[in-house]
Amino acid sequence: MSHTAHIPSHRKPRQRASKSALRAGVAGGVLSTIAVAGAAGPAQAEPVTQTIEMPTITSGFSTAVAASAQATQQVALDLETQADEDAAAEKAAKTAKKAHAEAVRKAEAKKKAEAAAKARAEAKAKERAERASRTAERTTLSASSGSSDSTGSSASAPSSSSNVSGSAASIVAFAKAQVGDAYVSGGTGPNAWDCSGLVQAAYRTAGIDLPRVSQSQSTAGTQVSLDNLQPGDILYWGGAGSAYHVAIYVGGGEFVGAQNSSTGTVQRSLDYDRPTGAVRVL
Q: Which of 138, 209, 145 is nearest to 175 (CA)?
């Protein structure tokens, strides 16, 4: 026996190398080739483990992901900016529409105001013409009453068949001249009256001072029947001493009075609004 017979050999049997290669091939596809190459010689095992550069692949992937995230963020910012611009444009459109509507409203209001001013001017001109006509009528009646006083005869009111004295004619003429004037509570002329203000002013033309309010005017003279009225008599509505309205009888079954804010000063038949009683001051 050789003196080296008991020393085991350091060479691997080929059969074991084949089995290792087979196992490696079954275990891992491409890695089996690497395993076989490693079994053929220890010098080739080390380079194989260094050919996989995972850090380089991972680094490139991270860069791509980062770039994709940045691109996504930019798209989001762009969309947000576009949304803000769209909202601003919508707000500007609404503001412009509102401004246009306001301009149209102001233009219409101005047009209406101009039309109303024109109507008022026309009404005023008409009122002045009517007042001039009434003044002329009053002057004529006053002249007629003066002629009647100087001759001792009586004159008739235009709308009455009764004889009218000078003072009564003056009162009637004044009252008729105010027909068409406005009614204003507390009004005492010259273009607006309440009922007792008109009666007081009419009697003042005859030199007679009456109390200011209708309650006192309804007891300022002698009570007379409505069937025995004379031009110039004071008509009242309500009780004597508690009347709420007064007017002047102008003859011919008619009266003149400042009725209310809707009608103003009017000349009406007694049947239009039958009075409660009458009082004679003259």
A: 138
Residue 97 lies in a domain: no
Cβ partners under 8 Å of residue 6, min gap 6: none
Query: Residue 243: which CATH number?
Result: 3.90.1720.10
Cα angle 265, 148, 157 (rounded to 5 degrees) comes to 30
Boundaries of domain holding 20:
14-43
> Strand 163-164 and strand 277-280: pairing?
unpaired
| Phi and psi torsions of 262, nearest 5° | -80, -40
In this structure, is residue 6 part of a structural domain? no
Domain-embedded: residue 50: no
The model's pTM: 0.46
- Predicted local confidence at residue 162, as pLDDT: 47
Cβ contact 215:270 at 8 Å: no
